[in-house]
Amino acid sequence: MSGFRNAMPSSAPRKAYALNQSPLFRLRGKGRFEDVIGVKWESVTDLLAAESFRVWKGPKDREIQAPIHWMAAVHKVIADLLARIEVPDYVFSQKGRSYADNARQHLGNHPVIKTDINKFYPSVTRAMVFRMFVRDFECAADVADRLADICCYRQLHLPTGSPLSGRVAFFAARGLFEDIAKLAVASGCKLTIYVDDIALSGPNATKRLLGEVRMLIARHGLKSKGKKSATFAAGAPKSVTGAVIVG
């Protein structure tokens, strides 16, 4: 790990800020990259060439790709920086909130619809991550190129077991989530998102609205799971992110 140094001391206060206040925003120049990420510019090649991920089969034969050693330390730096950026209130996959908090938003005598994005992290490609750093974070192209390589498993897609994947996936697919949020407002529904789990509740949470949400997901180049797309009647028990709502 000769090319790595801690960019963000653990004692630094964790204060939330807008995206344009992040050290990652408009990150340009090799020196600035080294200061923020903690990796020497010329050492990125070594970082990517190393055996940087542990891969194994998880529940339901799902492949888990977790960064290890030097890559794990770098991913933690980036994850910590991203975690400090403010996200919309409908995002419940963030520190201080839980699956139960997410489900609790949909309490009440009204219908609920839900769906989720199929293989969300593997569907977020390196091209999407690069585009996110250029478009949303306004990084220089060469810096965005380095960051996309570091964030992605074998420079292909987001890893399924990294601490940075959740927040990178959100920003990479932010256009989709913003479109769903607009649809929720127009329909008078409450929206929550927990990583890839999407739930809406309210009088107009109908099968038709669920179809519109799924079409939005497809329009953004992603897929929703048919088996996990469901509608719940107002008086029925409702399962949202693993928690059952009754009443």
Automatic annotation (TrEMBL):
<dbReference type="GO" id="GO:0046872">
    <property type="term" value="F:metal ion binding"/>
</dbReference>
<dbReference type="Pfam" id="PF00078">
    <property type="entry name" value="RVT_1"/>
</dbReference>
<keyword id="KW-0460">Magnesium</keyword>
<keyword id="KW-0808">Transferase</keyword>
<dbReference type="InterPro" id="IPR000477">
    <property type="entry name" value="RT_dom"/>
</dbReference>
<dbReference type="InterPro" id="IPR000123">
    <property type="entry name" value="Reverse_transcriptase_msDNA"/>
</dbReference>
<keyword id="KW-0548">Nucleotidyltransferase</keyword>
<feature type="domain" description="Reverse transcriptase">
    <location>
        <begin position="93"/>
        <end position="232"/>
    </location>
</feature>
<keyword id="KW-0695">RNA-directed DNA polymerase</keyword>
<dbReference type="GO" id="GO:0003723">
    <property type="term" value="F:RNA binding"/>
</dbReference>
<dbReference type="GO" id="GO:0003964">
    <property type="term" value="F:RNA-directed DNA polymerase activity"/>
</dbReference>
<keyword id="KW-0479">Metal-binding</keyword>
<protein>
    <submittedName>
        <fullName>Putative RNA-directed DNA polymerase</fullName>
        <ecNumber>2.7.7.49</ecNumber>
    </submittedName>
</protein>
